[in-house]
Amino acid sequence: MRKPYKSVENYTNAFLVTAGLVLFMAFFTLAATKGFVWVLLSAALIDGLIRLRAARLRASSSG
User: Fold this and answer.
1) Is residue 8 included in any domain, yes or no?
2) What domain range includes position 50?
3) Residue 53 located in a structural domain
4) What is the pTM of this model?
């Protein structure tokens, strides 16, 4: 007889916090080596890519 499956732990919040810390450290390192302007440009580029992907997903799921 098989044992019923138990639900797994939800590690979403831990992943998001860790990803946020890694991005913060990457931006801080970039600011220390290249200057604050490059941090702003990199953050804007990443934000734009995330918004573009979200728009594509939204368009593909609605049509």
Assistant:
1) no
2) 35-63
3) yes
4) 0.54
